[in-house]
Amino acid sequence: MRSLWISGVVLVLDQVSKRMVMESMVLGDSIPVLGSFFRLTYIQNPGAVFGLRLGGNVAHLVFAGAAMIIVAVMWLRLPPGQRVASAGLALVLGGAVGNVIDRIRFGAVVDFLDFGLGSVRWWVFNVADASVTVGAGLLILGCGILKGGKDEAV
Fold first, then answer.
1. pLDDT at residue 111 above 70?
2. Catalytic: 151?
3. Greatest distance between any 2 Cα atoms in the chain
4. Which of 52, 132, 137, 141 is the most exposed place for a label (fewest CB within 10 A)?
């Protein structure tokens, strides 16, 4: 449970960054930061990951709620000493909570991190999305470490 602070930090960074974007930009604005490679582009995503529409907002909230419960149960059942997997679960949980807050408050998720080259762009995302992705990667890494015992080398 010591890694729970990671979820809190992710949640605060996510919500503060989204608030800054919403207060300083108009929906649809795009501001170059590193030329066309990195831009701040303010959009609201009513869909799921990559903008997929899998039902309405209620369906997304139910799915996210179930995922958060699964993550919490996994975290509680995690053997002591599994720092990498624990950090991964904390990142996933913090990111999931951040996006659920958006869905409840705005009916959509606020996205603004926009990477690409010219017209070839990645999907616009936010701090919560990045946290979930990195967390999932750490969880996969941690699960591999679980087979060999404690991840004391990390």
1. yes
2. no
3. 50
4. 52
The mean pLDDT of the chain is: 87
Known catalytic residue: 111?
yes
Active-site entry in 14, 111, 114, 151: 111
User: What's the rounded Cα separation, in Å, for the pair 112 and 56?
Assistant: 22
Q: Give bridge partners of residue 10 from the DSSP assignment.
A: none
Distance between CA atoms of residues 99 and 89, nearest Å: 16
Percent of the chain predicted with pLDDT > 70: 85
C-alpha gyration radius of the chain: 17
Which residue type sits at 42?
A: Y
Task: Read off the pTM.
Answer: 0.83
CA 79 to centroid of chain Cα atoms:
24
Q: What does the CA dihedral 50, 53, 58, 60 come to, rounded to 10 degrees?
A: -30
**46/5 Cα distance (integer angstroms):** 28
